[in-house]
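Hi V.,

Quick status before I head out on leave. The structure for the redesign project is tokenized and pasted below; the design run finished overnight.
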């Protein structure tokens, strides 16, 4: 029973300690749908390579504030 409690405590603490934000990209602006991929204001961890938020074929852009597609 003790080993099980120790394992559960270790997993609970480890999941709480190692959580971090590695990439963020708030979609803001007057017409963010004009850019594909959208990379304006993107914050990336130095150990990652990120290409932004993009639209696939068949999804059109939206000419509106704070939206990329519908």
């Amino acid at each position: 029973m003790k080993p099980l409690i120790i394992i559960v405590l270790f997993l609970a603490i480890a999941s709480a300690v190692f959580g971090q934000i590695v990439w963020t990209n708030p979609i803001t602006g007057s017409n963010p749908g004009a850019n594909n991929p959208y990379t304006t204001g993107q914050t990336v961890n130095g150990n990652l390579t990120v290409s932004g938020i993009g639209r696939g074929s068949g999804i059109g852009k939206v000419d509106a504030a704070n939206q990329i597609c519908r």
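Above is the designed sequence. The beta strands are 23-24, 43-44.

G. will cover questions while I'm gone.

Best,
W.
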